[in-house]
């Protein structure tokens, strides 16, 4: 089970991420938006009736506040590191956490929801935000932004910002491979085709709403999209190679353990099963590649970001 999960995590899941060079002055992009799953979720699921939550100890124990926030890691997640990389003074907030909507919208917001995927039923099954719901919230966001910043500033934020779309891992790991029904209806290839179609649709919808620079996690051919939308700039954040190296030779990269996760026995604990009373949780998560059986440690997120930083920086400058 654990090795299957690690394998899925390796192959399908992790794809993204960033670094922590402190850049002084103005952020490099007007705003940052994140859509997708637990790799970028910074607490939206805290506001939903779902089991896909991470707002309890030991999640967040190494975060800035040393407390759980809903992030699926011991510390910062990919979206936080991206935010630091681009020089934002604070992390983009979880959209559902905003009780007031004012200037806190100006640097962008985060719509990520753990358990979400390109197959809408994945999110519905876990009662989390589907990608269409995330997009609907983004439409609401735009209306609020116009009220706060005025039409022309709002447009320059919308067109000039970077959009992270990190999704797809949950579709296989939490849905297809755990659903005998889906496996009966579709072969893995047919299921992939459905995901791909939904992925195209999502990018098209986002484009129609003004997004021009979109960073996506690894998923196949994008030529079709680029032909259709010449103004679209799309980057695929493929950390497969670097993560693979991390898992096969952890000690070369300052890690000690890549097979077992830090939380509990490190073999199957995730979400509610990774908790305060989990037995065996490691003391120093920085030595581990995985925090729980699905999600990377903060140290891994940072490593991946360091690896992607030059690509991301040159992407936003073009
Ligand atoms: C935790 O592990 C990291 C990586 O091996 C190391 O740099 C750090 O000093 C350790 N922290 C403690 C408190 O032992």
UniProtKB/TrEMBL annotation:
The entry's keywords: Signal
Gene Ontology terms for molecular function: hydrolase activity, acting on ester bonds
Signal peptide boundaries: 1-19
Pfam families documented for this protein: Lipase_GDSL (PF00657)
Gene3D superfamilies listed in its UniProt record: SGNH hydrolase
InterPro entries per record: GDSL, GDSL_lipolytic_enzyme, SGNH_hydro_sf, SGNH_plant_lipase-like
Spans through the membrane: none
Family of the protein in this entry: Belongs to the 'GDSL' lipolytic enzyme family.
PANTHER family (alphabetical): GDSL ESTERASE/LIPASE EXL3, GDSL-LIKE LIPASE_ACYLHYDROLASE FAMILY PROTEIN, EXPRESSED
Name by which UniProt lists this protein: GDSL esterase/lipase
Organism, as annotated: Vicia faba (Broad bean)
């Amino acid at each position: 089970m654990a090795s299957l999960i690690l394998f899925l995590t390796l192959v399908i899941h992790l794809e993204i991420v960033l670094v922590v060079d402190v850049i002084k002055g103005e952020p490099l992009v007007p705003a940052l938006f994140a859509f997708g799953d637990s790799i970028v979720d910074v607490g939206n699921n805290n506001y939903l009736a779902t089991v896909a939550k991470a707002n309890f100890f030991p999640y967040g124990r190494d975060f800035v506040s040393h407390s759980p926030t809903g992030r699926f890691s011991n510390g910062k997640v990919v979206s936080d590191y991206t935010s630091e990389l681009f020089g934002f003074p604070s992390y983009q907030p979880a959209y559902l956490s905003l009780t007031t909507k004012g200037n806190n919208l100006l640097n962008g917001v985060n719509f990520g929801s753990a358990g979400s995927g390109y197959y809408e039923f994945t999110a519905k099954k876990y009662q989390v935000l589907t990608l269409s719901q995330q997009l609907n919230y983004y439409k609401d966001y735009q209306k609020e932004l116009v009220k706060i910043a005025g039409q022309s500033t709002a447009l320059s934020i919308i067109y000039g910002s970077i959009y992270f779309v990190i999704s797809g891992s949950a579709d296989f790991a939490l849905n297809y491979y755990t659903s005998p029904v889906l496996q009966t209806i579709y072969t893995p290839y047919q299921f992939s085709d459905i995901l791909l179609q939904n992925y195209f649709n999502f990018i098209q919808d986002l484009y129609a709403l003004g997004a021009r620079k979109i960073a996506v996690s690894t998923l196949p051919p994008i030529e079709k999209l680029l032909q259709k939308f010449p103004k679209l700039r799309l980057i695929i954040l493929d950390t497969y190679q670097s993560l693979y190296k991390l898992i096969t030779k952890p000690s070369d990269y300052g890690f000690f353990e890549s097979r077992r996760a830090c939380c509990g026995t490190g073999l199957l604990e995730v979400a509610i099963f990774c908790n305060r009373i989990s037995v065996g949780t490691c003391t120093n998560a920085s030595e581990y590649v995985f925090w729980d059986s699905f999600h990377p440690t903060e140290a891994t997120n940072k490593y991946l970001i360091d690896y992607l930083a030059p690509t991301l920086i040159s992407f936003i400058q073009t």
